[in-house]
Each structure stands twice: as C-alpha cells, then as structure tokens.
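Limitations

Structures in this collection are predictions, not experimental determinations, and the ligand pose is part of the prediction. Treat each record accordingly. The example that follows, with L-tyrosinamide as the small molecule, is included so readers can see exactly what is and is not provided: the inputs are given verbatim, and the output is the predicted complex.
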Amino acid sequence: MAHKFDSDSGNGTILEEKKAKVKPPPMYKVMLLNDDYTPMEFVVSTIQKFFSKSREQATQIMLKVHREGMGVCGIYPKDVAGTKVDLVTQHAQAHQHPLQCTMDETE
Ligand code: TYC
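Predicted complex:
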C-alpha cells in the first residue's frame, strides 16, 4: 500500500507518494532427484509424509522424477524448504536409500 510521507521534515507542508518497500519473501522449490536404487514405494510414501500430498499426487511426482530426472514436491519460504530438505535426507539415510533432496530459489 502507498503511504504519504512528509518530506519537509518540519512543518508538514510537502507531501509526496512513496512506494512501501515490502517485497514478498523469496520462495524455494524443493526437488527430488532420480537414482537407480531407491524403491518407488519409498519415494511415494516419503512425498506423502513430508509434502502433505495424496497417494495419487505423490505417485505422479515420483513418476516425473523417475522419467525426467527431477521433480518439484513443493514451494516454500527458505527456512521451511531447508527443513524439508534436511528431514527428507535424514529419512532416506535412516532407511539406507540414496534418495537426494535439494532446493532452488524460484525465478
Ligand atoms: N528410479 C527409481 C527406481 O527405478 C525410483 C525413483 C524415483 C528413485 C524417484 C528416486 O526421486 C526418485 N526404483
């Protein structure tokens, strides 16, 4: 919203429009990468668990990653995206799968 600011810094006679400098926060895509070893079922359940997707949505994302090498699971502010990457990476390692999760700022 545009606010009026007194640029006369004293008697308030000169008022001019100034743009409020509020930008939305940068957003980050959280992506999974394909590999040859992680079971499809593990990828689907991981997407459901950490990205709040239905089984159908999670299956579509998994198949995109499987066929195209990469797929977006969700778009979040930086801190949330970073936490998702860490949790998914820990989950994959705990189950000894090489599944990789990364993040990238949106354009
Ligand atoms: N390519 C894996 C397989 O054939 C499945 C897979 C899908 C692995 C998505 C990782 O992010 C991934 N078992």
